[in-house]
Amino acid sequence: MKLHTLLIGLVAVGVLTSCSKKPEPKVTPVPAPVQPAAPVLQPRTGEPVQPVTAQAVKDAAMVELGKKLFFDPRLSKSGFISCNSCHNLSMGGSDNLKSSIGHKWHQGPINSPTVLNSSMNLAQFWDGRAKDLKEQAGGPISNPGEMSFTHELAVGMLQSIPGYVEEFKKVFKSETIDIDQVTSAIAAFEETLVTPNAKFDKWLQGDDNALTKEELAGYELFKSSGCTACHNGVALGGNSFQKMGAVEPYKSKNPAVGRFAVTKDNADRFKFKVPTLRNVELTYPYFHDGAAPTLSKAVEIMGQIQLGKTFTPEENANIVAFLKTLTGDQPKFELPQLPPSSDTTPAPQPFGK
User: Given 153, 168, 191, which residue is the final one in a domain?
Assistant: First the structure.
């Protein structure tokens, strides 16, 4: 009786409870699956083309100011045309017209080159008359057939807007605005408009699966046909002036004479800056006169007049497939909020003389 009472007491205080439980089973931890190591890509060397790399922003405040100026139509007499009008960043940095539309519906004399990757060019404009982006930026503002302003009027307009005065002061540490500051800021923004990570760049960087069989065949034909004699380097062009119609004369109604307009050297007649092929599927129509409406037509014409070669339909299709792999990441940013005009800002003249 006393033993029975003692056992009941021990259970009540929990001493014998563990004796009644089953032992916990041992759980063997399952090792986490071993993730295969990412393959180490071996960049391809010895190719006539190099990949585009992203542009590091050196002065964010200047780039932001340049972006505003790039999109601001008040730098034109009409208050309607901006840099983006002819170099539309939603359309491959061009306007997809044979020639651009200027002040009072003026028909431009030549096809608008893309602004994307334009910092890689040896010079600006088809004839290379501007040595760099800064010099180019001032041209359209004062061209009567384009933005139809003057540099003095453009600076006066900016000086009349308090928001711009404050921003220029912040960037340039100056109480006054001048055209040199304006073009420097626009150029700083344009220098950021590079397009890395194209399919072809991934292949160059060692990704064997980046290109299809047709695209790779197109690239090999592009090289073996001699296209890389002019279209080489990072931008696949933009680094030399070449005669349009090296093998067979190029017939065009466009009056442009190319580099000759700058040098007055007859040897430069009909020599134009070789256009970049980066993002070329977006920048139709093609050539300085915009005469080729499609990539396939451009490949056909260039084969004939530059190489003396007639591509078969399959060869043409393969080269076009390769050219489309040159489309990289397009610039991504928020559209700028432009500072409002003041009571003293000159009114635009979209319909005046």
Answer: 191
Identity of residue 85:
S
Nearest-5° angle of CA 173, CA 171, CA 348?
Answer: 105
Active-site choice (146, 191, 215, 315): 146
In residues, how long is the chain?
353
pLDDT tens, residue by residue, 182-226: 999 999 999 999 999 999 999 999 999 999 999 999 999 999 999
Q: What is the DSSP string of 114-179?
A: P-TTGGGSSSBSTT--BSSHHHHHHHHHH-TTTT---HHHHHHHHHT-HHHHHHHHHHH--SS--H
Q: Confirm whether 269 is domain-assigned.
A: yes
End-to-end CA distance of the chain: 123
**pLDDT band of 17, cuts 50, 70, 90:** very low
Annotated catalytic residue 175: no
Q: Is the same domain home to 76 and 167?
A: yes
Bond prior to 313 in cis (omega within 30° of 0): no
Does residue 274 contact residue 306 with C-beta atoms inside 8 Å? no
Q: Say what the pLDDT of residue 38 is.
A: 66
Of 30-44, 51-65, 105-119, 226-240, the one with minimum mean pLDDT is 30-44
Is 163 found in the same domain as 85?
yes
**303 lies in a domain?**
yes
Over residues 35-86, the pLDDT tens digits come to 776 678 899 999 999 999 998 999 999 999 999 999 999 999 999 999 999 9
**Cα gap 126→70, rounded to integer Å:** 20
**How many domains does the chain fold into?**
2
Tell me how far apart the alpha carbons of residues 286 and 223 are, in angstroms, rounded to a whole number.
20
Burial of residue 83, with CB atoms counted within 10 A of its CB: 0-12 exposed, 13-18 middle, 19 or more buried: buried
